[in-house]
Amino acid sequence: MTNSKDMRTTTIRMSVKQWAAEDRPSTKLLSMGVNALTNAELLSILVGSGTPQHNAVEIADAILDRYDRDLSKLGKAEQHELSEIDGVGTYTICKIMASIELGKRRQLATMGLRPDISSAESIFNYMRPIMQDLTIEEAHVMLLTQNFKLIKEMRVSQGGLTEVSVDVRMIIKEAVLNNATVLAFVHNHPSGNIHPSKFDDTLTQTLKKACDLMRIHLLDHVIVCDGDYYSYHERGRL
Mean pLDDT of successive 10-residue segments in the chain (238 residues)? Predict the structure, then answer.
């Protein structure tokens, strides 16, 4: 089992409900604002009542310890990993994963209904919430108008840890069906290494030739990692 240092004892602790009112995370949130809470206190609200052995803040600390107190790593949490932590049950897992997903959807909602996708940075900003927590490679295509407004974003392939298989013909077909005159190709590197592989280079050139044949402008091929990206266009390779 995964335990924090504070959770190695079997001594029965005070529950959060037994704390002084001003020290309880929920009361602190209401009186001082959400920004006043630590990550452990915020997470403890999702944990709820805790267990006879460990209060909610201790369980929240154990969850953070499991992911090196890194919220980006917690965002990639798998259900089976969370279930291994003492005091974390199915309902708590559901609340944690639901809150993570709401955060991602909020990021996407701020992009607008038809965002402008005219640069590698705008491609990265749009796709990062979708791709940042993936544990396997996925390939997506963004279909755009001639004014770089997004028509449709879609996943075109899902693969393993280091490679995806992409059907270029299907991408071109989707572009034609959606009257797209510009497209951007995007895939992630779960390893965190932003540099393209030889396979990525070959795929880029194959897609470029297919787009040129159909008079579709290939805006960019962007590789997305957690906090960085690689752009073929910015590197002068498109």
Answer: 45 55 78 89 89 88 92 87 92 92 76 78 93 90 95 88 79 95 96 92 96 97 93 96
From CA 149, how far away is CA 140, in angstroms rounded?
A: 16
Length of the chain: 238
- Domains of the chain as residue ranges with CATH: 5-108 (no CATH), 112-231 (3.40.140.10)
96 token code pair? 């944690």
pTM exceeds 0.70, yes or no: no
CB neighbourhood size of 164 (10 A): 19
Q: How far apart are the first and last CA of the chain?
A: 50
Dihedral (C-alpha) 100, 230, 141, 225: value to the nearest 10 degrees? -20
Q: Which three-class secondary structure state does DSSP give residue 112?
A: coil
Residue 16: beta bridge partners? none
Residues 16, 37: contact at Cβ < 8 Å?
Answer: no
